Amino acid sequence: MAAATFNAISQVKGLSQPQQTRRRELVYLVDFNTLGDGTGLAAGEDAAIGILPGGYVHERCDPILRTPEGTTATLDIGTEANDDGFLDGGNMNGSANARVALAGTEAYVAGTYFPTDTELRVKTPSGAATLDDAVIEVRMVGYMAEDLTA
Questions:
Q1: pLDDT tens across 67-119, in order?
Q2: What percentage of the chain reaches a pLDDT higher than 70?
């Protein structure tokens, strides 16, 4: 095979750069026994558990119930703008070490972009039981979008 007339690899912006991972997996272990003032979350209360960094593109939320509540209880996971955007009414009394099923009504679908740092929150829906025994692992999976205008 003959060599190219010109080697312009270093002149072509971006194509000669080594591949770097932009993947992000943010993991939060939430123990409602010790959350906030130590009494759990009553109906309608919420708690900030982390920050989605500016430039984060959401792919999926994997809530894993580590310890069930012991009674009928539900949980929302979202942001200040949409308190059930990632998990809407998730069953907190399911099987231990199992994924909490999404309702299918969550607003933050794959591809949702967060241009600025955004607080991630857990909330007990209005009228729901207090969460004070459950432990849940929240895994946010996505990637960081590069600002190409910079």
A1: 999 999 999 999 999 999 999 999 999 999 999 998 888 999 999 999 999 99
A2: 84
Residue 134 in tokens: 């459950």
Give me 102's structure tokens: 């999404």
Which residue, 134, 116, 142, 129, is CA-closest to 25? 142
User: Does residue 90 contact residue 83 with C-beta atoms inside 8 Å?
Assistant: no
Q: What CA–CA distance (Å, rounded) separates 123 from 70?
A: 18
Residues 130-144: pLDDT tens digits?
999 999 999 999 999
3-state secondary structure string across the chain: CCCCCCCCHHHCCCCCCCCCCCEEEEEEEEECCCCCCCCCECCCCEEEEEEECCCEEEEEEEEEEEECCCCCCEEEEECCCCCCCCEEEEECCCCCCEECCCCCCCCCCCCCEECCCEEEEEECCCCCCCECCCEEEEEEEEEECCCCCC
- Which residues fall within 8 angstroms of residue 95, CB to CB, at 6 or more apart? 65, 68
